[in-house]
Amino acid sequence: PRDVIYLHQQPMLFDRSVADNIGYGLKVRGCSRAEIASKVAHALQWSGLEHLAKRNAKTLSGGEKQRVALTRAWVLAPRFLLLDEPTANMDGEALTQTLQLVGRLVDEGVGVVLCSHGLQSDRPLFKRALHLHNSLLQELKSPHSLHAQGPTGPAFDTCHCQRSIS
Q1: Which ranges constitute the DSSP H helices of the chain?
Q2: pLDDT averaged over consecutive 10-residue blocks of the chain (166 residues)?
Q3: What is the model's pTM?
Q4: In DSSP terms, which residues pair with 136 in a beta bridge?
Q5: What letter would DSSP give residue 57?
């Protein structure tokens, strides 16, 4: 269970600082205050969120909240992340920054399963793409052939897998 972390489309953040939100899981796991402070500082640096450390998480934009949630997951060193619509309602810089963090997770060897209703820019991050349509799950030959091999639209879900779960 500690090896797998699920992130919802709308991250649940506490009415506390960004740093406190990132350190929450470490506190629950019984880490010392010094260890939490050290790991949170490293996580803020890893994610580029140092400038938000003292800000109340409830005041953040949607993209900032998603990056805080990804950072909170990363600091716990999961083996797999299950991401539900992590870039929903994002555009521009927020989308780019969020995808960069997901890419860093993949590069660091974290298995990522990402589900979406029509993700364009995430495809280069992943090695496998699975499509679920009308209760039928199909693997695409290439994650880059998303639209060439299947239907799109609101009833079309895509799961992108960085590596197989065995």
Answers
A1: 18-28, 33-47, 62-74, 92-107, 146-149
A2: 87 97 97 98 98 98 95 96 88 88 90 73 63 77 51 41 42
A3: 0.80
A4: 133
A5: G
